[in-house]
Amino acid sequence: MASKKRMHEALYEEPSRLDNQRYPLSNSSPLSFFQRASPSSTLDPSQKEGAPIPQDLLLSGSSTQSLIPPKKPTFVSYTEVSGLSPKIKVLCELLAETPSSKIEQAFWETGIRVSQEDVEEVLKLNYGSPSPAVKFFRWASTQLGKSHSPHAWNLLVDLLGKNWLFDAMWDALKSMRKDGLLSFATFASVFSSYVSADKINEAIMTFEVMDQYGCHQGVVALNSLLSAICIGKQTSKACEFFDKVKAKITPDSDTYAILLEGWEAEGNVGRARETFGEMVLRIGWEPMNVPANDSFLNTLLKGSGVDEALKFFKLMRENRCFPGMKFFRGAFDMLSKQNRTEEACDLWEVILGNGFTPDTLMYNSMIGLLCYINRIEKASQFMDEMVFNGAFPDLQTYNLIFQYLVRSRKLKEASSVFNEMVKNEGELTHTNCLLAIRVYLDSGDSNTAINIWKHMLEKGITSKEECGNLLVVGLRGNNRLSEARKYAEDMIDRGIVVHSSTLSKLKHGLIKVGKEDFYDRLARKLHY
Prior knowledge:
With 528 residues, this protein is mainly α. The chain is built from 27 helices and no strands. Helix 6 (150-162) runs antiparallel to helix 7 (166-178), helix 16 (325-337) runs antiparallel to helix 17 and helix 20 (395-407) packs parallel to helix 22 (430-442).
């Protein structure tokens, strides 16, 4: 989701401080994190055993009442990553193979010196081993003079949060606070971690105290929270909270794009209409807000059909707004499958006329549609022109054009397409091979039929039995008995079944020209 990605990137830009008001963070030193045992608890500071969540912070449908426990995320292991430096690989192997009680001693014994960048890399690759990762972080701090990079700290917070070790996560936050390392990126990670554990209320509580911790509760932070909740497919809860704060925090175009992307992912057409309508009322028609427009139209396309989506698209165009290519692909594909030729062609002209570039899939849909209405020459023209728009013919393109050219008996043009495809290392489908061998033989062009058979053998195209028998019978019918016998014999050598009816026709033809001995040789191969 483009708008979410841009928003998360923005979160890395503004550092902030954390004070100790809502969460009970102690006044311990910045090194207090390193003096604690490795993380073992999954309770965050607001949920110590016996301390209920304040009722005024609970939303309806609280995640604490969820009947289905969430699944913990799965993480990429260092063993799945290629190209690691020898140093990083050794450090990761030590983390994975050394007993927890001996990890720090094992690191010291290696004599390896680490940089801030090394620490960041090791943390990225060890999300699945939170306790060893914390011990590695602690060990590395002694080499770095207790000076880890802000990014390494954020990775540690994220690692602990994604493993639902929320007490340990907040201990890390305390140390970051003392060194002035807290940023919006840190809180974005906390939001995401709570949502992954189905703790929506806790994510909201974190947002509500941000200003008391030195981080402004502005639209960037709000968008971060909404994005995390929507990615967790809880868009209704995101909208519920948004409704409570939008009078205090003015939303921007990204806010609505995030919510609309959430509704698109959940397929909720009714709520998408409401959100889109509110966006237009509050911030007007925004030509630059392509992600919001695209998500809204895609929701309509999937949920209400192409007609309603095109109706809203027309309204957007009247207000100088456009969606992205995802909508154009989906709408065009749907029109093509419904054989709505005129509307598909009109949409194509809109796409090209407004600076959008169709991709290969869209060209294939257009070519298929033109072939369906028997505009083969126009379809061929599209295939020739697509490379100038940065789209290149693929196997589907070649097979579409080839099939319709053969069906239309435009065999010279079909041969040209076949030769170009072979030159580009493509291959025909089995259906097209069967069709082409039959049509070329019927037209008397045995040579091209033989070339297509050879193409099948070279590419290992399956179901050769039907095509091979068709070729042998066709060659016999075209008075190419010598070649018919040759290819029948080759089929036998390859273990391809030669039908009895094929052999009977071949035998009759050979006897007729006085070459019964050739058939006898075939019969011996078959143990007749």
